[in-house]
Amino acid sequence: MRKKALDMVHDLARRDARVVFIGSDLGCGTLEALQKELPGQFLMEGINEACAVGMAAGMAMEGRVVYVNTIATFLARRALEQVCVDLCMHKLPVRLIANGGGLVYAPLGSTHLAVEDLALMRALPNMTVVAPCDAPEMERCMAQTLDWPGPMYIRLAKGYDPVVSDPAAGFAIGRAIHCRKGSDVLLAVTGVALQQALGAADLLAAQGVSAGVLHMHTLKPFDAQALLEAAAGARAVVTVEEHTLLGGLGSAAAETLLEAGMARPFKRLGIPDIFPDYYGTQLEIMARLGLDAQGVARAALELLEAPRT
Amino acid sequence: MNDMHGSARAWHEQAMGAALDARSLELRRTVVEMLARAGRGHLGSSLSLIEMLRALYDHVLRFDPARPGMPERDRCILSKGHGCLALYALLADKGFFPREELWRFCRKDALLGGHPDATKIPGVEASTGSLGHGLPIGLGMALAVRGRSPEPRVFVVLGDGECNEGSVWEACLSAGNRGVENLTLLVDYNKYQSYDATCVVQDLEPLDEKFRAFKWAVRHVNGHDVQALRQTLSGVPFEPGMPSAVICHTVKGKGIHFAENNLQWHHKSSINEEMAARMREALG
């Protein structure tokens, strides 16, 4: 997914001279081909994220469309003030390509995890927040970033994630994809959690439970209508995200359902209010926190079977 | 100020001794009037800036108030956004917006607030106020416009207290290494920040050596001497292939004797009629 995103930046840079890439001390050889072919559209900064985001703002004020790439948490946490003031207040076309959203960097510990990035970015006016689920979907998403107004946070997963998206479903920023219909429970997900939700839907189907899956790849602007329509056809709603339970997809869904007066048994699945510094792999931590297919299916069943009060 | 470094002290004394001409006094009267009518504002931080901005807008910058976004203009970012009273006085004087706007400073639905907003105010290049943002933005602008004909120049005005921010030095490192010669920074070195003297809170000395070590060409200037400022700023870039830093030695509150070097006048949020009268009287 990461490689696809950067290859797309190269492709966009070829097509449009406004495109500039700014990296922050990325891995050796990153986008070397772009640097060789279009040196005026490639900048490698040092380990200075606040400055890099400010520079991106300055370039965008001069008509460039700037793609900034580094580790997610250094964009979302360290450079938050620059992201808010320089990018969002000025409504500038800067795209933050955030490596390793969620638990990708599990072996490196909590300093490198980006588990509150979606909440932070979602709280900023004018920001668009997207979390594609796999490389082909990333490609479809990136193709739409050239002329999208205002700043955008693009959450990347690890790379080589299983492909679960359907090309026929297409991709439009701000429009959720209803991957699977189901009448018992709706699984609303974002990013790579789509894999787990689809696996959970299969497990539930084997037990005679009909689960719908709604992929909310854009957290902001939030496709409230798609959520309400999908939830209207289900008895219960479960949200699944590789993100803290505070302020991400689950919060957005709860706000939407409650404000629309749509009362459904409701459960948020995600990372509790902790630093999940267990090391191991991304998938191991997700399983431990009940974010694997089995955990999602189990939570959905419990919700459906819970006595009503 | 007893801890002030020797050469900084000498420059400070020069800045203290600088005489103000009629235009400088008039611009200060405008600042005081805005402050008096709003009942609030950063006085000291604005008065130290007047001659720096005056030199830029009267003599150095290419701009057209009728076309604030003209591509070939020079860009000027007031990174120390809290000094905006001085900037507003100059922008109104140049005709970027009607002078009447000055008298609604900080009021409900006003054009002009306590920090400059680029999305509203013609002539303001970047919204600032949170410190440490202007130089990275200016660096990005300078890189983006490099090679155009005519090549726009970018000037960024920083506060001395602002130089505590890490992002300032991140941008200094990057601009120096990249040799961005169409970028000039001016430090409003009035020797005070909010809590105390800069040499007490977070000493910047030796400031010129810091910039030089970051591969910038550096000049010192008396920041209240318009001719000296004009001459210095007309000489950028000071060295080919290097960004330029101008350390402008100024006096916080310059021109209002009881506000000079007086931390009580860094910011005021409850200016009464008596205070306003004293300020007007001090300017003659």
From TrEMBL, chain A:
Residues 1-163 form the Transketolase-like pyrimidine-binding domain. SUPFAM superfamilies: Thiamin diphosphate-binding fold (THDP-binding), TK C-terminal domain-like. GO terms for molecular function: 1-deoxy-D-xylulose-5-phosphate synthase activity. Keywords: Thiamine pyrophosphate, Transferase. Its cofactor is thiamine diphosphate. Its EC number is 2.2.1.7. It is an enzyme of class 2 (transferase). Belongs to the transketolase family. This is 1-deoxy-D-xylulose-5-phosphate synthase. It comes from Fundidesulfovibrio magnetotacticus.
TrEMBL record, chain B:
Signal peptide: none annotated. InterPro entries: THDP-binding, Transketolase_N. Residues 27-284 form the Transketolase N-terminal domain. This is Ferredoxin fas2. It comes from Fundidesulfovibrio magnetotacticus. The gene is fas2.
